[in-house]
């Protein structure tokens, strides 16, 4: 993974820069000892590491603004960090950077059930947003797998999704407003507890901009009343194609489940060995979850049973109680853990048109054989967001490179069938060099123009998202 | 000038020597004349993948008919404003996107911009730019799709749009309450705060507060009954209300009526106070989105922004002497101006009254 060489002028001024940061922040908010900055050397894409020059952990928006003003004046790159759970290297530092961590900004500022909104500091974890309101029967919908740990700031930066976004949408569909601090240290309020932007939709632009346009310190989020209940079914099939056809039929029938999850045989075998969820011995399975009152769930599941029957399922298992529901979800929720048990794995995140599912699975199988690396598939089938997991051994010479090459081939395949490189994890450094597969030069130019407006010196998370050779002239200007 | 393909659109913009007033169907009171985008036709519709791609100049009616034939629909319930503004013409899908127009179902299914998954547009230099695509989940690069939606043509001219779709609901039910508009907001909030998946919550003169549920037949019957019980303190009853939702989306009570027309998107709990001030000043209202959207018909020349302040949100003047768009805070305005300068360096897309 290429990263720009650190700016020697910045490294030479480290002592002065750290002193300025210390003068502006409380004593415990600046970390520069090498043994302490190492804790921030990577995010969840742990194959790539680089300790930053310093880490700051501000407690207020004013402190964030002060940090950014100093870094702007000193020409220091800033890497914003929520909880460091990015799978794409979105929070990976460079040696000349200041990591701006938001973990200490985690308060709930306002809850208003009549207006169906909550305002939180952006370092608050995803699950603890729901935690603050579930006692009253409410929840915050986006549910990335890392929701116990990941921060709202990172969710906004990456426009995170989750298993239930088929019904509830992803972060951008549930975000109403932000307090944004620009690289110049200016505090800008965008949106608020009301629907729709007035002028240009800057909120929609900021969400998913991977920390390159500004640092979000507070957010207005839409909250929802909890449904009366939810229940999954598990349907086993004798072929991937049949499972894919069943997904399309469920969608066409007018049922809108909150989740349709797909697992293929390698994934089923691995999770069975790991957690003994009692899944059927079959080529592919779907987990479909419906919400509502008992009667409503029964009505939807009845329809799904009829549709599934036309595809000659190996098994149709309906959860009759909470324990059975838990067991149906157990294997799916353990899938990544099960893969981790078997060795190293790389998790991809491409999205494809749902109609291409059987073809793409077939071609992934062929690529897997060609590269000699096993691939297990587990993904959100309702919206075509795939998560192929490539198994490899990081200690075997050349195997990580072979794994990355296979990953790139799979993502190119996703683009070739009309899909995209990343559905919910973000580009970061991981998919940065594949952006030209999906975008023409003028498409990337249009996006970089936006960064020029918000961060003319290209100091915020500068070596991410855009291929280095594409952004070189702009980054060089700093 | 009328263009029917993207290449001609790009050519027209490259060749423009003076500001271009761009329009789709001319039904939303924007540009009066100039460049008409007639890039028309559905290029892809996959019902099994809930996806549709169409030229920006495709009539909304054509898209709705194609979807209805497969039992599907645009989630955000796009509304026609032609009747409201007294404008003849056929709404185009590009116009809907450029104005980010969403109907009553916005409270449940999100806005137009939330269903929009891909765009192609021509910027002010005549360059074709694509963003997003045809898949439902996509975080690859910056989300210019959202930026373009609702930009009223200030950054570029749409040539193609892609949407995610929803199955049409086989059944719906409406619960009504005989309440004044100010008092209706609390009842609508109670409905939207229930687990019964409300897909519309508004107030119409002569009708009162209305709440809608949609879905499978048995589920709709169940939820309508539970909602009626929940809202019993407000005098709720089920009515035959299917037609009311188009009345609300198109603001039919104001059709053919004189006066200035305003549209306020505000914090719903502020609606009772704003409504009180509007009626005290001789205005009339229609409410949507649980009170978060206030339509106001005002005596000519009334400055509703001053009258209603302070409020969280923004007010647009669709007919009247006031500027169409709410002035923005300085920091936001500076960013918007800078974005426009980047996408339209020659100032081609700056018709008077635009953003």
From TrEMBL, chain A:
Cofactor entry = FAD
Q: What name is this protein filed under?
A: FAD-binding oxidoreductase
One MF term in GO for this entry?
A: FAD binding
Q: What are the UniProt keywords, alphabetically?
A: FAD, Flavoprotein, Oxidoreductase
Q: Which sequence ranges are marked TM in the entry?
A: none
- InterPro entries, alphabetized: FAD-bd_oxidored_4_C, FAD-bd_PCMH, FAD-bd_PCMH-like_sf, FAD-bd_PCMH_sub2, FAD-linked_Oxase-like_C, FAD-linked_OxidoTrans_Type4, Oxid_FAD_bind_N, Vanillyl_alc_oxidase_C-sub2
Family matches, as Pfam families: FAD-oxidase_C, FAD_binding_4
Please list the residue ranges annotated as the FAD-binding PCMH-type domain: 48-226
Does this entry carry the keyword Flavoprotein?
yes
Q: Which domain of life is it from?
A: Bacteria
**What is the source species?**
Rhodobacter xanthinilyticus
């Amino acid at each position: 993974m290429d990263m720009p060489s650190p700016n020697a002028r910045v490294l030479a001024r480290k002592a002065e820069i750290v002193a300025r940061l210390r003068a502006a922040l409380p004593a415990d908010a600046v970390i520069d000892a090498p043994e302490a900055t190492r804790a921030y050397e990577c995010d969840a894409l742990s194959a790539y590491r680089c300790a930053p020059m310093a880490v700051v952990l501000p407690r207020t928006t004013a402190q964030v603004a002060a940090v950014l003003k100093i870094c702007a004046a000193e020409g220091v790159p800033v890497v914003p960090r929520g909880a460091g759970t990015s799978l794409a290297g979105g929070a990976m530092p460079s040696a000349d950077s200041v990591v701006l961590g938001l973990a200490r900004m985690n308060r709930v500022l306002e809850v208003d059930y009549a207006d169906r909104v909550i305002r939180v500091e952006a370092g608050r974890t995803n699950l603890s947003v729901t935690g603050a309101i579930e006692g009253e029967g409410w929840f915050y919908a986006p549910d990335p797998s890392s929701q116990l740990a990941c921060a709202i700031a990172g969710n906004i930066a990456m426009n995170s999704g989750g298993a239930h976004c088929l019904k509830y949408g992803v972060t951008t569909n549930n975000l109403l407003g932000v307090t944004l601090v620009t690289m110049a240290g200016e505090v800008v309020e965008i949106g608020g507890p009301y629907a729709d932007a007035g002028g240009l939709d800057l909120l929609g632009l900021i969400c998913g901009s991977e920390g390159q346009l500004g640092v979000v310190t507070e957010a207005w989020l839409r909250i929802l009343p909890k449904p009366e209940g939810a229940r999954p079914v598990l349907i086993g099939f004798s072929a991937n194609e049949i499972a894919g056809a069943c997904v399309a039929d469920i969608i066409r029938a007018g049922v809108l489940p909150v989740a349709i999850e797909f697992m293929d045989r390698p994934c089923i075998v691995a999770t069975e060995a790991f957690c003994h969820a009692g899944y059927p011995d079959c080529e592919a399975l779907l987990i479909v979850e419906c919400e509502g009152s008992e009667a409503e769930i029964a009505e939807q599941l009845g329809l799904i049973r009829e549709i599934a029957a036309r595809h000659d399922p190996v098994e149709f298992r309906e959860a009759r109680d909470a324990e059975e529901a838990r067991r149906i979800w157990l294997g799916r929720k353990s899938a990544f853990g099960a893969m981790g048990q078997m060795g190293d794995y790389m998790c991809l995140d491409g999205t494809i048109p749902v109609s291409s599912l059987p073809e793409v699975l077939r071609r992934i199988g062929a690529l897997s054989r060609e590269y000699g690396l096993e691939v297990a598939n587990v993904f959100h089938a309702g919206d075509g967001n795939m998560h192929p997991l490539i198994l490899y051994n990081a200690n075997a010479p050349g195997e990580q490179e072979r794994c990355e090459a296979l990953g790139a081939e799979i993502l190119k395949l996703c683009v070739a069938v009309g899909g995209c490189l990343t559905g919910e994890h973000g580009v970061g450094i991981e998919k940065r060099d594949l952006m030209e597969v999906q975008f023409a030069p003028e498409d990337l130019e249009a996006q970089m123009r936006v960064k020029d407006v918000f961060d003319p010196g290209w100091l915020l998370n500068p070596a991410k998202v855009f291929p280095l050779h594409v952004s070189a002239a702009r980054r060089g200007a700093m | 000038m009328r263009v029917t393909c993207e290449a001609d659109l790009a050519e027209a913009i490259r060749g423009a020597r003076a500001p271009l007033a761009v329009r789709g169907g001319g039904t939303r009171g924007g540009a009066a004349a100039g460049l008409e985008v007639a890039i028309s036709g559905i290029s892809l519709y996959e019902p099994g993948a809930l996806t549709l791609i169409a030229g920006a100049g495709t009539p909304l009616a054509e898209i709705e008919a194609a979807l209805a034939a497969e039992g599907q629909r645009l989630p955000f319930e796009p509304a026609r404003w032609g009747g409201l503004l007294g404008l003849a013409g056929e709404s185009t899908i590009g116009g809907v996107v450029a104005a980010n127009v969403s109907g009553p179902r916005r409270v449940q299914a999100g806005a137009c911009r939330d269903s929009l998954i891909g765009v192609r547009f021509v910027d002010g230099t005549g360059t074709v730019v694509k963003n997003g695509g045809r898949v439902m989940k996509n975080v690859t690069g910056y989300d210019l799709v959202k930026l373009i939606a609702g930009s009223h043509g200030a950054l570029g001219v749409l040539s193609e749009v892609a949407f995610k779709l929803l199955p049409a609901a086989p059944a719906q039910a409406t619960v009504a309450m005989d309440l004044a508009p100010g008092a209706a907001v609390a009842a609508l909030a109670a409905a939207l705060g229930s687990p019964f998946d409300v897909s519309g919550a508004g107030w119409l003169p002569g009708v009162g507060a209305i709440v809608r549920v949609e879905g499978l037949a048995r589920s709709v019957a169940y939820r309508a009954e539970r909602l009626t019980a929940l809202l019993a303190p407000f005098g709720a009853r089920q009515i035959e209300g299917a037609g009311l939702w188009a009345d609300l989306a198109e603001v039919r009570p104001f059709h053919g009526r004189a006066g200035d027309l305003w549209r306020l998107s505000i914090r719903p709990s502020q609606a009772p106070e704003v409504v009180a001030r509007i009626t005290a000043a001789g205005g009339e209202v229609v409410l949507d989105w649980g009170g978060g959207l206030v339509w106001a018909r005002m005596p000519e020349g009334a400055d509703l922004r001053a009258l209603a302040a302070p409020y969280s949100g923004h007010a647009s003047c669709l007919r009247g002497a006031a500027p169409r768009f709410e002035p923005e805070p300085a920091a936001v305005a500076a960013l918007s101006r800078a974005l426009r300068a980047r996408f339209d360096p020659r100032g081609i897309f700056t018709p008077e009254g635009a953003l």
